[in-house]
Amino acid sequence: MAGEMVPKKILKVLQGECFDVPPFWFMRQAGRYLPEYRELRAEKGGFLAMAFDPKAACEITLQPIRRFQMDAAIIFSDILVVPMALGQHLEFVAGEGPKLEALADTQDLCRLSDKHFDVLDPVFEALNLTRAGLKQEGFESTALIGFAGAPWTVATYMIEGGSSKDFYKTRLWSYRDPEGFQALMDMLVETTARYLIKQVEAGAEALQIFDSWSGALDPISFEKWSIAPTKEIIARVKAVHPDVPIIGFPKGAGHNLEKYVCETGIDGVGIDQFTPLDYVSSNIQTKIPVQGNLDPFALLAGGETLDRAAKEVLDSLKGRPFIFNLGHGINKDTPPENVERLVKIIRGESV
Ligand code: CP3
To answer: Fewest C-beta in 10 Å: which of 144, 160, 170, 257?
Structure first.
């Protein structure tokens, strides 16, 4: 006999349904603010060792769900595994973030190819294990989200060789040598679409595309390097899996947000904390389900500051399809008690 299907609120919202208590999850919900994560990290010796160990990645994905019963689990991995799948070396230096062998020009693209795609196998295995783990531990209404970085955001790391404040080399390359830059984007579109399709086949029930640095693009570049590649990825994924919902997160899009929503083909949009709530409810949420956008620093601060900020978001975005989230990833210094308090506020319980 087939088991009774438990409705997954997040998937319903992405189809346009509305709930009095909105479903919620938090970007970077698995990670350093949790003592159980830090403990496992010390044992495994680092972030990449955990991300490529399917059992460890599954365990870390489940950790926040056990504490807070979010409506979605996001697979523990990173957007920078795609450069690895193209053969670019990646390491994480403690306290400094990611380090890659920076691409200097179009010539360097010859070194890249997706013959390294197999390095991603542990991510698919982790998705498989996590889907089974959620069921086994009774989280039957929690949806599993797969993800990737958008080509522009991933390209900034590939060209700068790591994190950057101004994306100097990437922006300059995109203007000086648009054909060469387009070749890199094409490669990223191809590999990212393939990666997302395989994530669905491994158990992901929804996908998110992180364009964390789309805010560095002027409107014409935004169209070319954020909207166009994202649209192409979505078309390719939907050609194979038309029913899998895809959330786009164009952080810092500002005035380009509406265009991104209308042109990419996404099913839901992640909103950063810099976008005014009245603008979101009257111009964006009328077109598409929205996800967001509590300032992670209000969560870090906690107390009544948090209560006020969270209620503001809840009051502004209720009544139309809405998934509660943060405007960007959770800060590593956030006390887990603050997250517990936020969950109560979202559920309408007294704190
Ligand atoms: O819980 C989750 O959200 C799922 C896992 C996840 C990670 N990275 C784990 C991670 C997700 C969805 C990401 C996405 C990601 N990675 C983005 C897009 C979202 C965003 O924050 O804008 C970006 C830009 C990256 C690149 C990246 N990864 C950087 C710049 C860093 C170093 C900075 C930092 O926060 O330490 C990482 C490392 C990373 N990815 C950590 C985690 C939990 C920290 C690893 C550790 O030191 O334990």
So the answer is: 160
* DSSP string covering 182-210: HHHHHHHHHHHHHHHHHHHHTT-SEEEEE
The set of catalytic residues is 28, 32, 41, 78, 157
26 in contact with ligand 1, CB cutoff 6 A: no
How many Cβ atoms are within 10 Å of 255's Cβ, its own excluded?
A: 8
Give the separation between CA 34 and CA 333, rounded to whole angstroms. 9
User: Which pLDDT band, with edges at 50, 70 and 90, does 1 fall under?
Assistant: very low
pTM surpassing 0.90? yes
Centre of ligand 1 to C-alpha 28, Å, is: 7
Give the nearest ligand 1 atom to 75 CA: 4
Structural domain range at position 316: 2-347
What is the CATH classification number for the domain harbouring 280?
Answer: 3.20.20.210
Find the mean pLDDT for residues 66-83.
Answer: 98
Q: Ligand 1 centre from 243 Cα, in Å?
A: 27
Q: Are 134 and 144 in contact (CB under 8 A)?
A: yes
31-57 confidence digits (pLDDT tens): 999 999 999 999 999 999 999 999 999
**Residue 47 in contact with ligand 1 by CB distance below 6 A:** yes
Ligand 1 pocket residue status of 98, Cβ below 6 Å:
yes
Average of per-residue pLDDT across 139-164: 98
Sheet harboring 72-74: ordered strands across?
72-74, 143-149, 206-211, 246-250, 268-270, 290-294, 322-326
**220-274 residue pLDDT tens:** 999 999 999 999 999 999 999 999 999 999 999 999 999 999 999 999 999 999 9
Domain count, the chain: 1
Answer yes or no: is the C-beta of 27 below 6 A from any ligand 1 atom. Answer: yes
Beta bridge partners of 291: 270, 323
